[in-house]
Amino acid sequence: MKDQYDFSDAKRGPVIPQDAGKTRITIRIDSDIVEHFKAQCGDGGSYQTMINDALRAAINGENLEDTLRRVVREELTHAA
Length: 80
Known about the structure:
There is one protein chain. By secondary structure, the chain is mainly α. The chain has helices at 31-41, 47-59, 64-79. The radius of gyration is 20 Å and the shape is elongated.
């Protein structure tokens, strides 16, 4: 380690710029809900994105049948 560091050109804020259209918040969600979404995405997904999608579907009034049809269409597209 150096004895002195030069921070004269340093800038405040995150190193990686935040995504446009996203807002960082702190929210308390029941542990079982978080674990459910983490289990759904396994090792290759983002449980936060899944929670965001579920909230968006609730806001848009998407019912279970519509959700199921959308998911089946997406999976068939990926399988082809």
